[in-house]
Amino acid sequence: MAGFKLRRSLLYVPGNMPSMLQNIPIFNCDSVIIDLEDAVPLSEKDAARHLVRHFLLNYTDRNKELLVRINPLDTKWGYEDLKVVLPAMPDGIRLPKADTPEIVERLDTLLTEFEEELEVEIGRFGILPSLESALGVINAVGIANSSERIFALAFGAEDYTASMEIERSRGGEELFNARTRVLWAAKAKGIQAVDTIFADVSDMEGLRNETELAKRLGYTGKCLVNPRQIEVVHDVFAPKQHEVEYALQVIEAIQRARQLGTGVIALGGKMVDAPVVKRAARVLRTAYAHGMVDTLIDEEAIHGAQ
Amino acid sequence: MKIVKKAQAGTMQSSDLMVFLEPAETLNVTIESTVLKQFGALIRAKVDEMLQKHGIDAGEVRITDRGALDYAIEARLETAIMRGTEG
Amino acid sequence: MEGLWYKECSNGRRFIIKITPGESLTTRLLQFAHLTDVRYAMIVSALGSVKNVRLRGIKTGAKLPITPPRVTIHDIEGPCELLGLQGNIVPGEDDLLDCHFHIMMSKSSGEVVGGHLYEAEVFATCEIILTELDVSGVERHVSKVGGIPTIYIDEEAP
């Protein structure tokens, strides 16, 4: 996998609030989403984009991924957001209301035009489409394939539940199908899936449960609304020590098996073969990114020599 | 450019500032700040720089600062000027 | 007249063309034109089956000029039924013949795909009816505005 990049926590920061913007360097999340959309009242859309522009122009030695959530492209603010903010070189754009592949394609061609104007490498700006409606979830597969700029798919439950006219519950059963479909589309395309926010900042246990569910389904990142949520999310996504040890044993066992000329072997009474090895490799890659192991596992250890 | 109508930008939050602009014959800049003693001169220099950059040489400019950094001063002035010279 | 250019042409010779398996559609058609000294032609009909087809679509919201990042290239291994080939052969840069074709083809599911044709290979067979056009003062050059080769019509040319 090209440059395994950890994106466990994506923290929303309101675009019109200097006190929050200038704390971005000290938050220890992996990624920040500076919001020009719902966090900014209609009367302040112009002020927010200029504030964000000047902030980004001044924030030069960056220590995390910087995304900007613009207003939807079919509003009068979306294009202006891009025009003002892109020259300040964010890493990517989170696109709200990504309901169809065509909407994402339109952002793709707009970003190309700006890159040509700014004379930077075509494809430099990434796209994080937010699937947050019944239509968006239905079109997940088409959307995932609509642009090579897309590095992950984000599921947005707040707007999704609004579009479905249902309420969010603590258990999240009402989101199960939508979460899974967004996940399949992302995995089928080989990109990351990012889970929705957990709005109740005082309910850390609820946040942990929801993050664990998302992880169990296959999500590898989650959006956050408050810096206090970062630690819980990182803790959930970090491999547990026993998982790392087991993964190391799996690699060792499969290498022994290959010396015996077989591709399958028993480990502690359980079968170990290629899919088990692949899962172990993923754990070790994530562990490496967390600094829990000091060597990155290589392809040959995973697949064996030809 | 000329300030053609009353305009304002910014918020009263900490680390932010409010900018008030009004049309006037001469240029008059007044600054209130929670950190006036330490940073008054720096704020004034940044305000003058931005006004000059946007070719504003007349108007009533009132700043109430709550410890804003340079980027916020530049942004809020730019937005106020845009709003005040529009149309 | 700005926005619309035209030139009357009359029918020249008509040809039935067969291209054999594995051959490139575009290369062989241009070669045919050279052999028979056809300078202007249009495809009347084309059917058969094709594979290793490269075609393109233009992305939503793309603006002129059409450049690589604004198009999506599709490489379709096929084989597919060739449903149709629209297009023409017109002299291009420094009088070399140039062709412009759009292709339509169907997958086994009946799903139809198509677009601006770059390249295609004949699978089982390819039967083309082509009509030569008698006309002059029509040439294809790369348009700076459009970013792609387009037809230029000199209405005064005899």
Automatic annotation (TrEMBL), chain A:
Cofactor: Mg(2+)
InterPro entries in UniProt: Aldolase/citrate-lyase_domain, Citrate_lyase_beta/mcl1/mcl2, Pyrv/PenolPyrv_kinase-like_dom, Pyrv_kinase-like_dom_sf
Keyword field contains Repeat: no
Signal peptide bounds: none
Domain HpcH/HpaI aldolase/citrate lyase span(s) in chain numbering: 8-227
Recorded GO MF terms: lyase activity
One Pfam match: HpcH_HpaI
UniProt keyword annotations, A-Z: Lyase, Magnesium, Metal-binding
The protein's name: HpcH/HpaI aldolase/citrate lyase family protein
Organism: Geomonas propionica
Automatic annotation (TrEMBL), chain B:
Enzyme category, top tier: lyase
Keywords: Cytoplasm, Lyase, Phosphoprotein
Cell compartment(s), UniProt: Cytoplasm
Assigned EC number: 4.1.3.6
Keyword Transmembrane helix belongs to the record: no
InterPro entries reported in the protein's UniProt record: CitD, Mal_deCO2ase/Cit_lyase_ACP
First and last residue of the signal peptide: none
A molecular-function term among this protein's GO annotations: citrate (pro-3S)-lyase activity
Top-level taxon in the UniProt lineage: Bacteria
NCBIfam families: citD, PRK13253.1
Full protein name: Citrate lyase acyl carrier protein
Native species: Geomonas propionica
Lineage, highest ranks first: Bacteria, Pseudomonadati, Thermodesulfobacteriota, Desulfuromonadia, Geobacterales
UniProtKB/TrEMBL annotation, chain C:
One Pfam family recorded for the sequence: PCC
Keywords annotated in UniProt: DNA-binding
Record-annotated PPC domain positions: 9-154
Gene Ontology molecular function: any one: DNA binding
DNA-binding keyword on record: yes
UniProt xrefs under InterPro entries: PPC_dom
Protein name stated in the entry: DNA-binding protein
